[in-house]
């Protein structure tokens, strides 16, 4: 049934994968120490930056000011699009060619890259040390390896809370202040569904971020002390919570980003437990719902427990292929370790700074029009300090894929949380040769 | 790449030596291959060799670029990926791992599920599609049908639409809320079906999608086969009093056997290489219900950055395609070859 054209495409994909892998077989795989950026070199010449979406927009906006500070310097920001971003970066790292000077990478992915391509990035340890105290600790951890070497500077951080529809809560007669634990949250969801027919939250089965968010809230990632920790009691607790949400009929399943947004915009769900950057989506995509949203911290697992987590957050890093690393680093410093620029990126592009001095800016502590004059960003700024740092390791991507499978088998396949997570842990163990934490 | 060469090319080498010894000339230039080491007895031979040298340079001048491209973009990556499938990527360092990746595959439930899914599609979709294509081809072949060209184009068109574009269209059609399929079902009082989020329906959707795309393509190929059946055979069947069904069973299907074989082999290979449709429609979900080996390979390689394991999966797929193709050849091809030898013997006799 398949044309030769189709087979050719297959071969193309195969050949690409193979070519990529082949590159490593011959030379890319040498375990070289990461290069260090020389502090002596002058800031000059031109650099290219790969980024995407609003992040690229932000850097494009900031670039002229940097060029003005350093006459003759040219910053070329390329929006490579999120869908292909990691394929492109991975191919570049694997083949050892074709990468720009500066790369945007998300925190969890950075850890996978550091693990797989330790010599793919400049070692920024000496230069970045001065900023360590000023950046959010959880975000900082995503750009450093287990030995403490720094490969990237944190950009934004994703403190989590619950965005909720005040009108739906009112209609259902639920007092948001009464929600302190996840049990309260489920009880509220049941009441909302009974009174209004609305579900509680939307989950994307192909890339769920709710489970890892809950897990980090409990102070744990997929790895603890380099061991696989996806089947620990904390993980089983979080997965059981996911199953309860599903079994009570409170989850709306939607695939892909646009569908997630549409589900919220159409008012199919009453809440969105997610990170602060969701605010940018609300103001951009649902201006008509202005005044109908409010924010509360995440419900805790036990009364008085941690009420936030992290979801998302990017870094900027200097590619080892850069011929102009000094300028690349100067630009990263300019964009990220600078309160004014960070606040302007929150104002214009909704990027919430990981640079803590920026969090005391009046814009962040002040009232927000969209939320009916509430100090929404202040809520998140306060929560940022409570985000539990977790370990990612270079095998995060493998673990993440398998945990997503486990989440689906629990939520949609009706599997028991403990046995699904045990099976995921075993698979991760066979894929990574790591031990399973008890 | 895995399609076996035509079985007829088997006995060729055996014919060669006698040619050289009996006729003391250079063998007829059947292929651009360099001559095999010939007995250096006659000077004539050497002279012949010298005259052949120049054309060989010309051969390579023409074939060279293609050969170079083949080596760079095909042979080298192929070899590299085979090598890589025997290694372990440990923090950027390649270490020899022997069969470790293949052993891991044996215990990988996702890999087995992807094969199981492929098996389901093979068992349900391929025969279904070829049956529909055969019926379509027969209808398109009827003399009473008007606007033949239009029909053929209409049925063939799906196979040349962009893979991603058609998958995106189906995603919109099959949306649970407000998708056109569910809307249409709603007119008949059927409650919305969760096409892409329910494991069973996701498989049904995937099978439907592939069938839509490839049935017309196969129908056109079968139609070409149908048109090569001589008119006399239909007439003879009619004279013998065969009805439409008997003619179809006793004349059309046996004559079409090689074409059906071609269709089913290419369909099998295509199914084993399924990627775009489930990548766009379901990303292999829900709960890996629509995961296929190639999509899994992509996920392992590019999401999980485990290139060694991805290479091993790629070679496993190559192996499976090879084995299935051989089986199909044996199974379908046997009776076909038997028929053709019987025919030629009859001719000889």
Describe the protein's architecture and organization.
With 438 residues, chain A is of the alpha/beta class. Chain A has 18 helices and twelve strands. A five-stranded mixed β-sheet of chain A has the order 2-1-3-12-4. Chain A has a three-stranded antiparallel β-sheet with strand order 10-5-11. Chain A is globular, with a radius of gyration of 22 Å. The N and C termini of chain A lie far apart (50 Å). The relative contact order of chain A is 0.17. Chain B is mainly α and 349 residues long. Chain B has 13 helices and two strands; from the N terminus they run ααββααααααααααα. In chain B, strands 1-2 form a two-stranded antiparallel ribbon. In chain B, a hairpin with a 2-residue loop joins β1 and β2. In chain B, α12 runs antiparallel to α13. The longest helix of chain B is centred in the N-terminal third of the chain and has 42 residues. The interface between A and B is large, with 57 and 69 residues.
